[in-house]
Structure prediction request, 1725 residues.
Amino acid sequence: MKNSKYIILGCLLILGSTSCKKWLDVNTDPSNPTSSTALVQNRLPWLQHFYSYTAGVTNFRTACQAGVYYSNSASGNAFSTTWIANTGNLTSYQTWFVEVASNLNDMYTTAQAKGAYSYMATADVFSAMGYMEMLDLYGEMPYTQATTSGIPSPAYDNGKTIYNGCMAKLNEAISLFGKTQGPAAPALSAGDMWNNGDVNKWIKLCYGLKARYMLKLSKKSDLFNTDSILYCLSKGPQSIADNVVQPGYNNSTVTDYLETDPVVTNGNFDYAGYGSNQRISQYYYNLLTNMRGAGVTDPRMTKIVPSYMTNIKLDGSGKVASSTWTRSIGTDQYGPSTRLVKGGATSIAAATYATANTNLVYTIADATELANFVAAQTTSGRTFTVNGNKVTVTYPAGSIYINSTNYLYAGDTTYVNLRSSAIATSGIPAQGQTDVSWYPSAAAFNAGAVASTGSFQIRPVSDEEILTYHEMNFIKAEVYMRKGDVANAYTAYLAGIQAHLDMMQAKLTSWKGAGYTATNPDMAPMDQSAITAYMSSNAVCQGAGALTMTDIMLQKYVAMGCSVENFNDMRRFNFSVGNVGGFGVVYPGYNRSPLFGGSALYTGASQTDPRYWPRRWALPTTLEINYNLTNALAINPHAADPNIWSMPVWWDCATDAEYNGYLSK
Amino acid sequence: MRKWKLFNVIMFAMLGMITNNLMAQTVPIGGTVLSDDSIPLAGVTVRVSGTSRATATDNKGHFTISANEGAILEFSFIGFTPQKIKAAAGMEVHLAKGESGQMTDVVVTAMGIKKERKALGYSVSDLSASELMKNKNTNVVNSLAGKVPGVNITQSSGSAGAGASITIRGGNSTSDSRQNQPLFVIDGVIYDNSTSVTGNSGTDGLTRSNTSYSNRIMDVNPEDIESLSVLKGAAAAALYGSRAADGVVIITTKKGAEGTVKVNVNSKVSTSWANKLPEAQTEFGNGLYSSNGVFNSTTPTPGATVPVFNSWGQKITSADTVYDNIGSFFQHGRVYDNNVNVSGGSKTGSFYLSASNFDQTGIVPNTDYDKTTFRFNGEQRYGRLTLNANVAYSIANTTRTLTTAGLYGGGGNGVMGAVYSFPQVFNMKNYMNPDGTQSRKFAGILPLENDIDNPYWIIHKDNLTSQTKRFTGGINGSFKIASWWDVIGRVGYDQYNTNDYTYIAPGSAVIPLYQNGRLSKDFLGYTYITTTVMTNFHKTFGDFDTHLMLGTTSENTETPYQNLWGYNFITGSTISFSNIATTNQFLRDGTTKKRLVGAYGEVGISYKDLVYITATGRNDWSSTLPLDNRSYFYPSVSGSFVFTELLPHNTLLSFGKLRGSWAQVGKDANPYATLTYVNPPISIGSFTGIGNQYTAGNPLLKPEIQNSWEVGGELRFLNGRIGVDYTYYHSQTHNQIAQPRLSNASGYILNSINSGSVTNKGMEIAITGKAISRKDFGWDATLNFSYNRGRLGSFLPGVAYFYPTDAQFGPIKAASIPNGGYFLGMTGTRFLRQADAKGNEIPNAPYQVDPTTGLYKLNTNNPILGNREPSFIAGFNNTFRYKKFLLSFLIDFRKGGDVFNGTEQVLVTNGLSKRTTLNDRQSVTVTGVNSSTGAAFTQTYNANQTYAINGANFDGKYMIQQYWQNYAANAPNFITSVNWVKLRSLALTYDFTSMLGSQKVIKGISATAIGSNLFTWTNYKGMDPEVSAAGGTGGSGSTGIDYLGVPAVASFTFGINVTF
Prediction:
């Protein structure tokens, strides 16, 4: 007994004095692969997904700025209506740098070690696309030192350096795509969600991107080169088969590690179609229903502008027995904006589903308003009673209605929100994968009462457009127009519209095949006769001689929709000022809203002052300004000023001198 | 084969030594020390003559010490004449007051080595059990507040089970992931005191600011503590290695005493209440005016939830009902605290056995904290071999609530944020419909995900619990090979499992994905095994006394974690993973490992009782650093000089000593910080994607090094009736290892770096006095005073400020400011003042008014707004004894240190603050200079007018609202340099023992009444200024930030203590 204690003590001594080198080698986490062991064919799908995600949030928020959408979310409304933008500038930055850019160096070097030239090239392409988008948004940011090991606090570069860097990356990518991969390299198709490993499609993408980026220089007489753009276009996408898209799915509820959005859905959807806050703007709506004042409805209108069910009659089991599809109208935010002026900038109300007959009592003091309200109830065929200035309206069970006693909001069901549902976002477990319509509640779903059919580009299962043939045509049309070659411009203009119609039709056809149209007629293909009628109507310019830059850019605006390129184009044409080239007002009707409140951000007093307009985003305070202030102020002493939002970025200036003037103290 | 041979040789050699030395027999001797007026003396040093073996008496004057039969024991105590008496079991020693002499005072130092205080070259503070128990707190850290100079305690909130943080001589590290808290060592074994957020924000959404967390020292039963030593400087702590740079708290638990078995039972009951609540205005109802003057109080503005829950509405009339939503929300908390312990011992062994239960109900309904502990300490002596075993087991259960935020990524809100913003015209108590769904004011129109959860819904329907079961144990063997040589071996084990349960009820205002309920279960394990072998040599050569200690230690830490979560319960009433489709269930697990080997030594020499010099050195090999940098050595040297030995004997200055030390301590990294890892894979279609995590590793990390020095002295006057202890210290930490949040353009949110330095300097003074010492009446007082000045040195180029992530609230951020700025700084937004020709602001000049907004312009470059570090803190601790009454009270003082009243800031933002009723909300005036022209600017906004500003029209009522939003953005409106005087505790004890007569059953009985935090005199207008909004945040932490917290509590406790 005693001896055993001494033996234990002795063993402890031995154990205690052991300092084995191996014993200490435990500092590699056995539960996680490291950045150097991850495979390139797994990196590429990650990059493609998260680039699409970062592009999705950028598309949505810049589309609000460009007037495509009305939004009453805090940041969306600030971008679309009041222009009191002080948020909404964070996610693009973070998702680009943290989710995408941090992988580029690892991907490039791992690919290089295996002779996987195509994968190296894709790293270059993502670098170019991402940093160019950052330049579009923020103007100046860390670039040459960004995501460099050992530089946790990178210094900034100006817009010109970033621009030239991105173009150089594309050139390198083109040459790398031209090389045959080494024998140890994984096939590009193993990790390529976009082009299925088709190197030629990637090369076309590179040239297409170069054309897009060279177009940005249109204000710069010394750098803008129409022939170079045309050359790139000739090597870029030649048909809709060359379109590059990130497909969206609705087959998983898994959410991502950083922003907790679904990982399989379309990036545009995650921001524009996820919640109840977005609606079609009247500006966009008018272009779809009355282009060129022709009074012709675009065949794409019913695919882009959502509808909802009215006059719902329920059967004995509470299911919708009959109903009428009613199309949304647009929300006016740049014109008189009567509805918003009455109720406030964010006041468009969301619809509710009535599970039982519901009476709402409205008190309307103003006699005219009262009379108008009563008239509207009569028109709609609802039951109501009037008692003095109180109106009691009955919404029958099954109605999609506004559950508010404020009469101002009672008609807001007509502003159908752009919401779609995914299995990861609906909160209605029974809603299957092929039903992406929006139901306000589980009861509405059980009844089959659809409150929104959604919008073409922003459903969970929509393709996110990375680079398309129709955009190439619109670029070509603009370039020829600038060269004065109206005939070629006209050809490209028509081809652009047609290419967009073709792309949509192909997608709508595939949706029909997959069964999405069972609950959602707006996902069905367009009527061919409507397309033909539209193309020959006055909504489309019917002769090269009549073609204007406005025609080209507004058709491009319609086709691009949820895309940063509309905001880029509008900056190049100074929005609706009409002082670029001889092209006149290119975006007529676009202006500050009557609800404009962003006077600290957009300090120009008149439209001709560049600083009257939104020109960039402020760097995100909580991600960058707080942590890298000294570097940010070193490149631009105004980086933290409230009116940085109206400072043109490098390519938005005619000369370097103009740009440097903004950056000086 | 060869290895075995060597092993055998060692074993035989050892066994040989052991048997050779079994002859001389030591036995435990117990006894009592009393003053000559028969009052038990606590803290008397008892030492076996001619050896270094020593102990101290407990608060009953009892001691036990091992000594050879017939050995001479030396008794010494400040202010008493030392005595030497032959050892005898059950001896009673009377010490006489008065003459100075050899005043020996023993303290526990690094590695558990007891040393005479006069030999120390650095400052050590120690507290006895009786001192700790005066204001017993179940979190022993809280009991230190005000009692030890240089120690700063911050309670994270008043909620049940909430933790507290302790920093000694300022924080050394700016990073979130480094907690700046001292190492805790219990009976020789390092005891984990982390405040862990189990799981992570990405999987189960928990962050530091959305609920309360316990610090793990709370698992200790404070009643088990015999004594506590605080080793403040690096020199004192250097032998403990890596983590000792932040100081060490050494806890020794109770042991049995020789004699009959003793049973002690004590029970306490206490009640607690919020000591101060924020006040809300009751004049205006809910709603908001839009820029064109349209008022809206009935319809939520879609997308922006705030307006209807804001209180910018119309005047409340007598027809309206006003609800005291804040005042009626909190309840009285209560605690039942029961302890029992049994102890005893024989000549060769002793034992101590205890059990306790602490059952607390919080002031927030449906929250509680319940802790049960068991401990066994045993000691057995076999001749020269002494074996000790300590085992403790505890179970702690907390039911907590979401406080200020919903789960990360899940939407929703917390209880306190909603309580402090709910309009007074809404009845918050009405939270549930008859059908069991949440009663929502704007049901139907406001999508559930945009609504605000009613606080009562959260506390009744959601369920957040945390359970920690902990087992700690240690076995110590010490063997005296010769009178001058001993060997000590120790194995320590610390193991706990924390299981957290987070349930969000169906129908909560969270993102649609979770609206049918969400459940997560988190498991966090912690296993720490350490082995230590030390050997001590001690020899005297004439007037020179020398000692040498050599030792080695190994530490192995494993932290497994597991997270299960899922959402969407198929059948509403069953809350389990079995009731969730497998596609909606997720799993994560892993293990973090860390290992460390240290070798250390100490050599000391002293001359007479005059001069003492000690040097230490330690080399660590840590698994967490890159191979090339994994080994690092750091030395220390300290000395003391008892100059009164050279002076002629006098009673005025009875003792005087100068001391000084210099030390270096190395600190390793957190595990896995050298590499960058990837995220779990994602599947899209047929493809699988993998990408980097948002934390960057750094393969070039070096150890962090702290250099520090301190000087000080101790003086005792009038035979020790008055004592003064003074220390000045300076420390600088270089090559800081941190994982800060930096520019996202680095590609990462967090980056592992080695950069920057932190400097702390300050002083500590402790004055002790026995003002009155008579038979029936005594007054002892201790006054301590300290300050620290923490500064951040150089940091990464280009980085203006350093922010801990979890401490950014409203317009302010906790920040450390590089290049000599405050370590506990605060930055944020404030109004811009008039600028000079160069564009620089002129101090105290008028504010700039922006003509484009008609309101004050803000300085958005995050100017420095304050320093959260107090100018000084002090504690005044008094004990009065009158016959059988014992009255003690502790007053603590603080001067300076900025506190941000974020709760008031939120009240202003949402229109609930009383400040916003200025002029009956009919007008506000903006006065300053026009920011573009520089001309004087004055503008009054009246409620019933319209104003054209920069080409647009704005309604006056809207402008008044905007004025207050502008006001709320100016952080200085909510920052106060806070002074306080707190009556931290007041305790009255009466000892009934003498009334028991001559019966033999009950040996002692006493009753105690304790009040805690009864009064606070302060210039701070908000809730309790002793706050920290995100408990356990590392780096500069969240101290000084009062943001929507559970209010601090005051309490009254009554207890009875019986000894059998």
